[in-house]
Amino acid sequence: MKIHFLSLALSGALLCAFADVASKYTIGDKVEDFTLRNVDGRMVSLSDYDSAEGVIIIFTCLHCPYAELYEDRIIQLHKKYAPKGYPVLAINPTSPILFPEDSFEKMRARAKAKRYPFAYLQDSAQVVHSRFGASRTPHVYLLDKARIVRYIGSIDDNPESPQAVKKRYLENAIAALMRGERPYPDITQAIGCPIRVPKSAPRLDSMPVASPRR
Fold first, then answer.
1. CA distance 110 to 42
2. Could you give all domains of the chain from N- to C-terminal order, each with its CATH number?
3. Under a CB-based contact definition with an 8 Å cutoff, are residues 65 and 193 in contact?
C-alpha cells in the first residue's frame, strides 16, 4: 500500500513538472494579462498596450554584461518601432536577493540616467518571467496585436558589436508581422546571463496580478 501511494505521489510530481514546462509560452500562445510596478511607481499592465499593433517584451536587467551591451539597442528599438505600433516593454526578472544591483532603486536610477523611453517593470517575485519561460537576459518575446507570441529569442546575432550584426532577428520578425507574414525564424537562442532563482522565498513587493490561463 505504501509502495502504491509512493508510486502515485511520484507520478503526480512528474505530471506537475511536465504541466509546468508545457505551460510556458511558445509560438502561437496567447499571453495573459499581467501587472507589475514601473520605475515611476505606477502599476503597468500588458492590457495598457491594447491599442498597439504589437508589443516587444524584453526580459533584461542591470548586472548582466550582455544586457548592458544591448541596452542602447533596446532604447533605439523602442524609438524606431513604437511610432509604428510596436513599443518595447522591458521587464527585470532578477531577484534583488541574489543581485542587489538590480534593486528597484537601482532600476529607477538607471532608467533616469539613460532616459528610458519605455516602461521598465520589476518582476522581483519572478512570477512573470517564469510564466513566459524566459531563461536569460536579454530574452525577447514579440507579441502581435492579439497578444499572440510570434517570435522568441535574441535581438540579433552579435551582442559584442552592433556594427558587426549580420542577422537582425527581432527587426526581421517585426517586419514580417507588418507585412502580415509569419516571422522566420520565429525562435532563436537567447544570448545572455542565466536568470537565477533564489532558494529563499521571493519578495512579494511586485507580485504581478495575472488571470489564470485557460
1. 17
2. 25-194 (3.40.30.10)
3. yes
